[in-house]
Hints:
Shape: globular
Largest sheet: 5 strands, antiparallel
Structural class: alpha+beta
Strand content: over 45%
Number of strands: 5
Number of helices: 2
Radius of gyration: 12 Å
Amino acid sequence: MHITEGEILTLDNNKEFICLAVKNYKESNYLLLLSNYKPVEIRFAKEIVIGNSIDLEIINKQDEKLELMELFKEKLSPNQ
């Protein structure tokens, strides 16, 4: 049981985000999330599977965000 591209997720703040991409990195799945409202927000999250449930840890540290931006670079490129 994992989150897949195209899924719509409701975060704790009751805002909906679309999962644009999932990448395995450092033995964990990381998600690129895009809000479905304006102004558009982009979030990175780490998927945490506990039994049959999935938790998301939103990435807030700047250095981790920069690493993940490189990982998801092709999805973030405006030329695609």
